[in-house]
Amino acid sequence: MKDYPIAIRYLVRIALVFAIVAVLSITKQLLVPLSFSIFLAYLLYPTAHKLEGWKIPRIATNLIVILSFMGVVFGVIYIMTQLFGNLSEDLPQLRTQFAGSFRDFQNLVQDVFFFFFSQQNEVIKTAGLSGDYFGTFIEAGKNLIITLALIPVYTFLLLFYRDKFYQFIMMMVKPKNEPVMQTIVRKASNVVPKYLTGLIVVCTVLVGINSLGFSIIGVEYPIFFGLVAAIFNLIPYLGTVLGYGIVCFFVLGVQSPAVAGAVVIQFFIVQFLENNILTPNITGSYVRINTLVIIFSLIAGGLVWDLPGMFLVIPTLGVLKIVFESVEEWRPYAFFIGTSGTEKHSVTIRSLRRRFGWEEESGRQ
After folding, report:
1. What is the end-to-end Cα distance of the chain in Å, rounded?
2. Cα–Cα distance between 217 and 259 in angstroms, integer?
3. Reported pTM
């Protein structure tokens, strides 16, 4: 390949990237449940390994951990359905309130920008915000059911055949590269479960913080929207914006701009707490990816696999970072996607304490 001109080499690499993206997009329905299953298997592996250490057979161990996890998931779904049931009882009234608020907003746009109702409705129609989506909803629901049914099956098989997969990987690499591959597998089996567990803990804490904040500022159905905003927070940066955007949109439609403004203020407070206190202390430094790479990867994951891609892309980057760090010639890529090298410019509680001299004072005390 080195014998070819540099333009040809880069053209081949770009074509390879486009081919990979095309394959990922075409095989989305096949690979999305498998990808979720891989990370779920990583999450459940420490517990399964511990149970096997107690002489419990592997089949029974896998069933225990998977059924326990499914019980927790169904419990969360049950809570959400109960909360949504309370909201759905008031849905006709909320729809009327929202329609009235939306008409007021259209009047304001018409009076200020001379953008008339017919033009606004045409834009809304062009953007796809109106119409019959029943068929699309049914198709999406069918795909979701298939995905949710496959994930436990894939996870069980991945946990059951994990030794076989490990042996297969060792057989594929050259003997001189076996120590490097063993390091990658060991780090991944240690780091990924801790990171995913930390995400779940952060999400749980945020449910309480969000719900309490929404209750204080007067948002209707605070627990339901606190749970929704916390779940979206599993998507770094953009997820918090999406979750709070849903809440703000609801509040603007059925309550008041003042409450919506309070929601925006709470968003910045929660974002600061999550980025500087919760995530550093709960997930630690298991997966440190810089913000530019995260945002670019989230958009790319969303383009290829929609919302599931946005959930999966950060753990995938974490695994890639482990691979890059373990292979010497790939370490520049680990440095590029990581956070090292910008510590002195980061805005954290510790950096603020150093800047204002509080850390020195606390050390003297």
Report:
1. 63
2. 7
3. 0.76
